[in-house]
Amino acid sequence: MASVQLYDTTLRDGAQREGISFSVVDKLTIAQKLDELGIHFIEGGWPGSNPKDVEFFNKAQNLALSHAKLVAFGSTRHPKAKAEADVNLLALANAGVKIATIVGKSSGPQVTQVLETTLEENLSMVADSVGFLKTKGLTVFFDAEHFFDGFKANPDYSLRCLQAAAEAGASCLVLCDTNGGTLPNEIVAAVEAAKQLTAVPLGIHAHNDGELAVANTLAAVNAGVSQVQGTINGYGERCGNANLCSVIPDLKLKMGINCITDKQLAKLTEVSHYISEAANLIPDTFLPYVGSSAFSHKGGLHVSGMAKWAESYQHVDPTKVGNQPRVLVSELSGKGNILYKARERGLDLPSRGKEVQKLLEQVKLLESRGFQYDNAEASFELLVHRVKPDYQPPFELVDFMVVVEKKRRPPSQKNLEEMLSEAMVKVKVSTEIIHTVAEGNGPVNALDQALRKALLQFYPSLAQVRLVDYKVRILEESIGTGAQIRVLIESSDGVNEWRTVGSSTNIIEASWLALADSLEYWLLKHKTGD
Ligand SMILES: [Zn+2]
Description:
The longest helix is centred in the C-terminal third of the chain and has 19 residues, at 507-525. It is globular and about 80 Å long. By secondary structure, it is an alpha/beta fold. It has helices at 24-37, 51-60, 87-93, 108-115, 119-135, 147-153, 155-167, 184-197, 213-223, 244-254, 262-265, 268-278, 300-308, 331-344, 354-368, 377-386, 443-456, 507-525; strands at 5-8, 41-45, 69-75, 99-105, 139-145, 172-177, 202-206, 227-230, 396-406, 419-429, 432-440, 466-474, 485-492, 497-504. The protein has 18 helices and 14 strands. Helix 1 runs antiparallel to helix 12 (268-278), helix 6 crosses helix 7 and helix 16 crosses helix 18. The strands form three sheets. The protein has an eight-stranded parallel β-barrel with strand order 1-2-3-4-5-6-7-8, surrounded by ten helices. It has a three-stranded antiparallel sheet with strand order 9-10-11, with helices on one face. Zinc ion (ZN) binds next to loops.
């Protein structure tokens, strides 16, 4: 059986999708999730291109990856320059990783018209750059940019580029359909030509502009490539990259290639949703395998068929990819999921009894109001505590008021016109009621300040907690300003990060709920009575 290694580039190519901006913390937690899924290589970013990626690689040193290897991405040296003086290659050598992927041109017309150098110089650029990283002790993968288009225009030259990388010591030659317009039969022909040329393992990196990225990837595997590059949910530049959430189950369930374990495959849906939340994108319900509609049955005929024979209207068993057939969701399976989630977080809940039932009802009710717990584990944990009869919250909200004022200035100071926000908060800590007022640069900031002012008197160590990310999502977009608003907050105390969620038709209330959850969660974890 062929063996295939999975290479994820969600954090680099995936982040090129319009509208995606991952924070460093997002990137670190996504890397962790990809590791749990069984991905072999995680491309973390381009350390030579931006400070955020440098910070990511610094912090990633502390990631406890059980299986995956972290890869840094960069490009070949500049024309007529020295590899050992190339800032981008030096950043790769200093990224603290053992593997680097460098992209280089492998298409004649791209070299002469875009890079504006000679075909020979480009070959030297490829060889020098691979060779330099090898001398630094790195394993090097070579991304052959525009390989398939180049192969059509001038096959000999594209193959010579591969040869140059192979001779310089590249461990994998990744054939890229950079513009995403190649057809599966063309992919096969070019892969076969590359196979004739070299014994170095080949990889495939396909874009989806002709909606063929997954098909092209599978065709390349059939033709003999052993490394598959793609992204979760197919995120990527323009129309995206090959969607690993489809490629992986296709490889494993249809082609019998055991690229990850059964247990890891069962995490696929969760990972897909987690990453769409982190990307602040609404999960696409119609995605194959992982979408919530992928196994939902609306037609009466289908539903009655499914009742007789579960496989009558579905191509695979949805539980294999961690999804579920929608018509068959029972109260019991809902309970099972919640118990599983609670235990995963080390929380103790009896499998029977009122508490679980109450928790299940709460989750269902809150989800119907727009709360979403896939990426807000701290809020979920609080729900589990709150159904316990003896739970004592560290504080309770009595009420709050926020005033937003746009101050008029005399015409001479027109440029100084500013918005002022002030929040009044009343909270109860054990039997005491505290009343505070604070100003902020916006209503949420003012609320945060006022709430902290109240709580710091009782819990001084709360000063370490800060907000690192704040995401707003409008649900049911067609309803306009009456729509439900979900706020996701990411907080940190310098050691740990946690995420909380709030939802309301009012953005301030949604923010307040997420904010209060964040502080309550931290206090719960640090019951030191300071
Ligand atoms: Zn790409």
